[in-house]
Specification:
- The chain is built from 13 helices and 9 strands.
- The C terminus is likely disordered.
- The termini are far apart.
- Helix 4 links the parallel strand 4 and strand 5.
- The strands form 2 sheets. It has a 7-stranded parallel sheet with strand order 3-2-1-4-5-6-8, with helices on both faces. A two-stranded parallel sheet has the order 7-9.
- It is α/β, with parallel strands linked by helices and 325 residues long.
- Bound molecules: NADP nicotinamide-adenine-dinucleotide phosphate.
Length: 325
């Protein structure tokens, strides 16, 4: 199939591109910066420059395309707001896809988005789901929760680096999923007609609280975490504060997520029917233990090698010193 992936440079988007190429699809990526996306070209994808917020750039990217996988979202560090990218931009894209006569559209939403109308990104995701369902396109909506990849910077690196792990008092159990597994589902949807015009929750096999993830990291790394608790009230205050400045809008919108974390409602869902419908095997889905075990194993081996190299070169220096003095 000739696919267009939007957001191909992102955490999930790059796994979608990788999986689609591995499955034999021809992949075109709509990218804002071909320089930043050079690795996708090296993998074998075609690059076309465009921007969701520049509607004129979309029709040329859609020529000859049979299906669109949309993995784009506003970057926290971007000057474009969540509303501009995730609402205005997506409306632009969905309309352009419809006008181009393309039928198939895969969209990533967030689990339980409709339950949080006061959280901007959740509200926008719920509205986009609705807009897509009413568009007449042949959609598949995959409702995700957290990515395992995000846990590395949140927990694993601070623990290895003896830095504080920041967390709120309340942590909602979340069924994190590896983006490689999510990509499998997204690409598989193209081959399974039973996934058409349907919405699926897509989550990992177990919901974990922040405390449980810290314990797991401590066990796998052999280090002790330094935990710093930030009260929910402080996050709410920071949210109000960051709303004053346009350049911190996206940070403010992300801080609004504190409300989701404080809800205490586990971010998880039953998955048996979804695996059956997609024809995928749950045993092949990465568990958080194996994901973090692989990460710590690799990093700790690297650190040992560096340590060995350092002490070897110090030893050589000592010998040299002994020789010269
Ligand atoms: N991260 C999570 O835990 C999580 C949880 C639930 C759902 N999701 C959903 O999963 C999807 C992928 O998320 P992610 O975390 O992988 O995203 P990400 O790493 O932040 O990447 C965002 C992607 O969107 C692209 N993009 C941003 N603004 C754009 C614009 N105006 N025009 C075209 N492309 C634009 C970025 O391109 P550049 O390289 O040019 O910036 C990048 O490729 C999103 O729909 C997100 O809402 C994520």
């Amino acid at each position: 199939m000739q696919l267009l992936v939007v957001g191909g440079t992102g955490t999930l988007g790059r796994q979608v591109v990788r999986r689609a190429l591995d499955q034999g699809h021809a992949v075109r990526c709509l990218v804002r910066s071909p320089r930043r996306a050079a690795f996708l070209k090296e993998w074998g994808a075609e690059l076309v420059t465009g921007d969701l917020c520049k509607p004129d750039s979309l029709p040329p990217a859609l020529v000859g395309i049979e299906a669109v996988i949309d993995a784009a979202t506003a970057r926290a560090t971007d000057s474009l707001s969540v509303r501009k990218v995730d609402w205005d931009g997506k409306v632009n894209l969905i309309r352009a896809v419809k006008n181009a006569g393309i039928d198939r559209y895969i969209f990533f939403s967030i689990l339980g988005a409709a339950n949080y109308p006061t959280v901007p990104l959740m509200d926008i995701k719920a509205c986009t789901e609705q807009f897509l369902m009413e568009s007449g396109l042949n959609y598949t909506i995959l409702q995700l929760c957290g990515f395992m990849q995000g846990l590395i910077s949140q927990y694993a690196i601070p623990i290895l680096d003896n830095q504080s792990v920041w967390m709120t008092g309340e942590t909602t159990p979340t069924a994190y999923m590896d983006t490689q597994d999510i990509a499998k589902f997204a690409v598989q949807a193209l081959a399974v007609p039973a996934t058409e015009k349907r919405t699926f929750a897509l989550v990992g096999n177990q919901a974990w609280t922040g405390e449980e993830i810290i314990q797991l990291c401590e066990r796998l790394s052999g280090r002790t975490a330094r935990i710093a608790k930030i009260p929910l009230g402080a996050l709410r205050f920071m949210r109000q504060f960051t709303r004053f400045f346009q350049w911190t809008y996206n940070i403010s919108d992300r801080l609004a997520f504190a409300e989701v974390l404080a809800s205490g409602k586990a971010l998880t869902a039953p998955m048996a029917e979804t695996y059956e419908c997609f024809g995928l095997d749950p045993k092949e889905t990465t568990t958080l233990e194996s994901y973090l075990q692989e990460y710590f194993g690799r990093i700790l081996k690297k650190l040992k090698e560096l340590d060995f190299e350092q002490s070897k070169s110090q030893g050589t220096n000592k010998k040299k010193k002994g020789f010269f003095f």
